[in-house]
Each structure stands twice: as structure tokens, then as C-alpha cells.
Amino acid sequence: MPGHDGSEPAIEATGLVKTFGDTRALDGLDLRVPAGSVYGLLGPNGAGKTTAVRVLATLLRPDGGQARVFGHDVVHRADAVRSRVSLTGQYASVDEDLTGHENLVLLGRLLGYSKPVARERSAQLLAAFGLTDAADRQVKKYSGGMRRRVDIAASILNTPDLLFLDEPTTGLDPRSRSQVWEIIRAVVAHGTTVLLTTQYLDEADRLANRIAVVDHGRVIAEGTPGELKASIGAGMVHVRLRDPGQREDAANILAKTLDAAVEPSGDAVSLTARVTDSADDTGASVQASRALLALADAGIVVDDFSLGQPSLDEVFLALTDKPADRDLEAAS
Ligand SMILES: Nc1ncnc2c1ncn2[C@@H]1O[C@H](COP(=O)(O)OP(=O)(O)OP(=O)(O)O)[C@@H](O)[C@H]1O
Ligand SMILES: [Mg+2]
């Protein structure tokens, strides 16, 4: 199959613009998605993720900029693009009144398979997705997880080169989510490139080779999950105090010893500080140890203390929120 040799990107978009009335849903979006990978699009509600997917899948015409999918322009060569891609939408498209098997056979027939081939392919996919027992039940009687699996099965009937998955696991329980992840991994192992939008940072962290963080219709950060985490600091110190009355003192001590911004997190006794690489070249662990000693010297009782790599959640908050707008008083 062409496009899997790593040289030609699956998607290359520059300066994409899409407006709806006064809303600039896409405001100069740039994207380069290597073939053969899972690429994550992350962003808050309304960031423009679904709009980007719809433009790249040729369902929506951009007002500006350019995009190519496997080298084909999404506007001028839409047919060529469509022959290579498949879309599982945020609000998916199987027929609720038909059974799982009937849906897949119908779609197979629409793709031009003969009846026996469509039936066989349906049976294979239902088995692969653990839906054999549910094959002859109407889709409207499926659980959310089964429903999502049949959606993905429908979108890979034709083994696309590029699969768009717009929030494939939103609303699913943890078990169904991990089943969908397994399916995504299997699809990628067969050479399909996946563009995944998600609200769940752990999902992007586990599945995506690279991630673009989208906000206000633009990419504000891009990289591997590790690169994005490293970009906001060397580590995160999390502290739980015994006495909430000592939180302000503890925050001041941490800010001084770590030379870092300290933020309250969650409950009345927790604090979080982002450790950046210091000028005197001491590592994050040395700085964290100093901070712990300083708290002890001040008579502050610490119940829990940890140093870890920033989570993608913390990256996301740091990038899409304005830390200057948040402070101890505002959040407590
Ligand atoms: N058909 C439309 N008509 C008018 N406005 C739209 C339309 N589609 C999207 N928008 C607006 O464009 C912006 C981007 O929407 P989009 O659906 O792309 O965001 P999203 O990142 O997918 O959000 P979510 O995480 O909620 O799915 C939003 O402000 C939205 O209200
Ligand atoms: Mg969306």
C-alpha cells in the first residue's frame, strides 16, 4: 500500500481557516501527521477538533489554508481523499434499528462487496470485536461500549489508510475504553494511520505517538507525550499536609526552596509545584529533598510527598489555562 513508507505524511495541513458566522473554529491550523502512527488531537471543548477532522475528511470545505491527505488536496482531490479515509464521528452513523450484522453487511454492500463476501467480512469483524453474541440484536439495544465497537468495525470494513476517530471512548466505562484501545492498536498494527481526538489525556498518553494541543482553532503545542511533559518542567512536586491551616506557610516555603510557582490542588491540604531545571544544575530530586527538609524545619507535618513527571493533564492545564489568573486565594 502506498503512504506507509514513512516519507509521505498522512496529513499535511497549513493555515487552515474555517469560520461559522463570527466564530473562527479553525484559525490558522497547521498539522503534520506521519503515516503509520496514532496522532492525538487534544483540546478543550470548542477548540476546533471536530471541525479539523471534518475538513480533513472532506466533509467541510475550509475557508482558507490548504490540506493534503496522502498528497491529495482535500478540496480539489476530495474523491481521491475519500477513497483512502474513514471517519467514526463523535455522533456515529450506524442504523439503530438494524442488527450489528445487518449494519455491517449493508455497509459492505455499499462498498461494493458481493453478498457472501460482505457477510463473511461482517462475521470476521463481529468476532474480532467480541460482538458475535450480539450480532443479531438491534444496535439500539447495545450498551455504549458495544455501540462504539460496532461503529469502529463499520469504519474499518474497508481497511482505510487513514481512520479518523472523533472521541471514540467518551462516555464509556473503563473496561469498554480499554477494549476500544485494543482495537485501535490492532488497526494501527495493520498499517492504518489514526487521527484521534479525545478529551482524555491518559488516552492520548497511552495511544498517541504524537499529540497536537489545539486551542482557539490553532495548534499551541506539538510533540510526543514525553516532549510535551518535559516542555513544562522537570517534575511536579505534590504535597499533602496534615493541617490545612499550614497550607499558606507551606506554599511560601515551597515557592522559595523550589523557586517555582506553587498551586493548591484538589482539597484544602494539597499543594502542587512545578520544578524547572535550576540554574545551579541540581536535579529535580535534590530540589525536592531540600523542600521537604525546609517544611520539616518549619514544623509543617507532611503526610504525603511525591516527585513525578508532569502528567499530560498538568501539561494541558499549563498550556490552555492562564496560570497568572489562578492563585492560592482564587482557588481556595
Ligand atoms: N456547524 C456549525 N455552526 C456554527 N458553529 C459551529 C459549527 N460547528 C462548530 N461550530 C463552532 O466552532 C467551534 C469549534 O467547534 P468544534 O466542534 O470543532 O470543537 P471541538 O474541539 O470538537 O469541541 P468538543 O470537544 O466539544 O467536541 C465552536 O465554537 C463551535 O460552536
Ligand atoms: Mg468535537
Write up this protein.
This protein is α/β, with parallel strands linked by helices. It folds into two domains: 11-228, 3-Layer(aba) Sandwich (Rossmann fold); 230-331, Alpha-Beta Plaits, CATH 3.30.70. It is built from twelve helices and 14 strands. It has helices spanning 49-56, 78-82, 100-110, 115-128, 144-155, 174-189, 201-207, 225-231, 247-258, 284-297, 312-320, 328-331; strands spanning 11-20, 23-33, 38-42, 64-69, 72-73, 85-88, 162-166, 193-198, 210-215, 218-223, 235-241, 262-264, 270-275, 302-308. The strands form three sheets. Strands 6-7-8-3-9-10 form a six-stranded mixed β-sheet, sandwiched between helices. Strands 2-1-4-5 form a four-stranded antiparallel β-sheet. Strands 12-13-11-14 form a four-stranded antiparallel β-sheet, covered by helices on one side. Strand 12 (262-264) and strand 13 (270-275) form a beta hairpin. The radius of gyration is 24 Å and the shape is elongated. Bound molecules: adenosine-5'-triphosphate and magnesium ion (MG). Magnesium ion is lined by residues 49-50, 90, 166.
C-alpha-based Rg, rounded: 24 Å
How do the SSEs run, as a string of H and E?
Answer: EEEHEEHEHHHEHEHEEHEHEEHEHH
Helix percent reads 25-40%
Percent of residues in beta strands: 25-35%
Q: Could you name the ranges where pLDDT drops below 50 across 5 or more consecutive residues? A: 1-6, 323-332
What best-fitting shape do the alpha-carbon axes yield? elongated
Q: What's the architecture of the largest domain in CATH terms?
A: 3-Layer(aba) Sandwich
Bound molecules: adenosine-5'-triphosphate, magnesium ion
Distance between the termini: 56 Å
Total helices: the number is: 12
Side-by-side strand order of the widest sheet: 6-7-8-3-9-10
